[in-house]
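Retry 2 of 3 after timeout on previous attempt. Resubmitting structure tokens to design endpoint.
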């Protein structure tokens, strides 16, 4: 046991040193983005845990600015794809173009070949386009003609959904939403924050410029360290209990939820909850996961993975309410 405690102490010191860039990155991003600390923290979790993020919020909440600023601060390539009903898969992944001079086909790569992809209003594009993007997210490679091209790491997709308009949209199928590590619901800024936003935007000279703080290589190194963050067996069991309570609520004295859940969270939920908890511990500059880390990221990992029955909808129950009830019922180690 003595060895383990020494190892954890050493790991804690190493992670404390190596995670110093998190504070610098936060300071740099907060120059341009007023408020929205929660969203920025979740973007960093996705980046460090190698998971993609789905953002839901009304227009004008700095979603585009956030990922653009993050790309600049990390000195990575940024691409924005505006999803529309007439978009084709080739518009995202690229296509083969015939070169008359050389009498051969050449590859023209699409905007997906970047480090940070903003998929704006993903629910506006047809299923074929959505699946092309989701395949790239999962496989991290693109096949054009006979050749397969790997995507550059770090590779982070931030997809946005507008919850207001439902006309002419193609909602993401539940199985595809599961590919996103986190689903974040973005709220409005506070009154004082919005006052600062007005001042920044009225006066162009007040708009701060984001400077590159770290490199993509630093992020890849940090990702390897995130995987090393220590997770005790009790924490593993806690994660499994939360996920299994969505599948078999009756085993956790939650019989009331049984008729409200149409399907529980998939094994991806367990994996992503563990990885996001480790990334959260890393952001807090700790070398080990505590139950509070799991609880902090649980809602964002689980809210899009719990299916509701018609009965739940009739009772105005949301997946957030169900996850909250599970968190209150499952024993904390």
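Retry 2 succeeded. Sequence:
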């Amino acid at each position: 046991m003595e060895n383990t405690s020494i190892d954890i102490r050493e790991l804690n010191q190493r992670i404390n040193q190596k995670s110093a860039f998190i504070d610098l990155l936060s300071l740099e991003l907060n120059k341009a983005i007023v408020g929205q600390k929660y969203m920025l923290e979740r973007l960093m979790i996705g980046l460090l845990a190698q998971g993609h993020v789905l953002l839901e919020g009304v227009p004008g909440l700095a979603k585009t600015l956030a990922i653009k600023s993050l790309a600049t601060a990390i000195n990575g390539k940024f691409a924005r794809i505006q999803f529309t009903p007439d978009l084709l898969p080739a518009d995202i992944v690229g296509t083969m173009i015939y070169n008359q001079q050389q009498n051969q086909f050449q590859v023209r790569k699409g905007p997906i070949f970047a480090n940070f992809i903003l998929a704006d209003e993903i629910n506006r594009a047809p299923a074929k386009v959505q699946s092309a993007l989701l395949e790239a997210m999962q496989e991290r490679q693109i096949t054009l003609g006979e050749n397969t091209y790997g995507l550059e790491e770090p590779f982070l997709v931030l997809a946005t959904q507008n919850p207001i308009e439902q006309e002419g949209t193609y909602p993401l199928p539940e199985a595809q939403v599961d590919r996103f590590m986190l689903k974040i619901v973005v709220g409005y800024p506070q009154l004082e924050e919005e006052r600062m936003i007005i001042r920044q935007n009225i006066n162009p000279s007040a708009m701060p410029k984001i400077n590159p703080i770290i490199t993509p290589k630093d992020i890849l190194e940090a990702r390897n360290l995130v995987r090393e963050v220590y997770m005790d067996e009790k924490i593993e069991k806690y994660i499994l209990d939360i996920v299994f309570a969505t599948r078999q609520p009756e085993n956790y004295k939650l019989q009331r939820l049984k008729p409200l859940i149409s399907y529980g969270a998939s094994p991806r939920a367990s994996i992503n909850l563990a990885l996001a908890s480790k990334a959260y511990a890393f952001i807090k500059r700790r070398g080990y996961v505590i139950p509070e880390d799991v609880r902090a990221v649980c809602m964002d990992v689980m809210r899009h993975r719990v299916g509701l029955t018609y009965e739940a909808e009739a009772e105005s129950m949301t997946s957030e309410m169900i996850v909250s009830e599970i968190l209150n019922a499952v024993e904390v180690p």
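Attempt log closed. The chain is about 50% helix and 15% strand.
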